[in-house]
Amino acid sequence: MNKESKATIAYIVGKLISKKNTSSIYDYEQAKHINISGEVNEKNVNIYNYDKGCHYSGSNSGSNYSIYDYGDGSYIKLSVIGKRFNGYDYNTSSYFSGNVNNDSISLYDYETSTYSNYSI
């Protein structure tokens, strides 16, 4: 999964779980804030990642979000259960999972077998 998509997923789950109203996420791997704006709620995602320069949009059917990444031209499947999340990135054909603890988000990328950490 590319670094922009990981940060975007972390932003989405961070907003959904923490309910924090923010327009950026801090990526510890890149050591910088990534500006993202738009709507994230239990029914829809419609955001713009300024670092990547593209939109992400989708909707929730049950407990699964189907989010289209306009930059990569592919879908990301996302499921949020309590403070945990998991999903599948169709661009890289890889799974991911993680959790949210207050303002901290940890995402495990099965493609690279690595953790990425964020703060919202």
Please tell me about this protein's structure.
This protein has 120 residues and is mostly beta strands. The two termini are 20 Å apart. The protein has one domain. It has a ten-stranded antiparallel beta barrel. The chain has one helix spanning 3-18, and strands spanning 24-27, 32-40, 44-49, 54-61, 64-69, 74-81, 84-89, 94-101, 104-109, 114-119. The protein has one helix and ten strands. 13% of the residues lie in helices and 56% in strands.
Total beta strand runs: 10
Mean pLDDT: 95
- Note the main sheet: 10 strands, antiparallel, barrel
| Count of alpha and pi helical runs | 1
* Structural class category: mainly beta
Coarse morphology: globular
Q: What are the segments in which pLDDT stays under 50 over at least 5 consecutive residues?
A: none
Number of domain modules: 1
Strand content bin: over 45%
Helix content: 10-25%
How would you describe this structure in keywords?
mainly beta, 120 residues, 10 strands, 10-stranded antiparallel β-barrel
What is shown here, in short?
The protein is mainly β and about 120 residues long. The chain has one helix at about 5-20; strands spanning about 25, 30-40, 45-50, 55-60, 65-70, 75-80, 85-90, 95-100, 105-110, 115-120. Strands 1-2-3-4-5-6-7-8-9-10 form a 10-stranded antiparallel β-barrel.
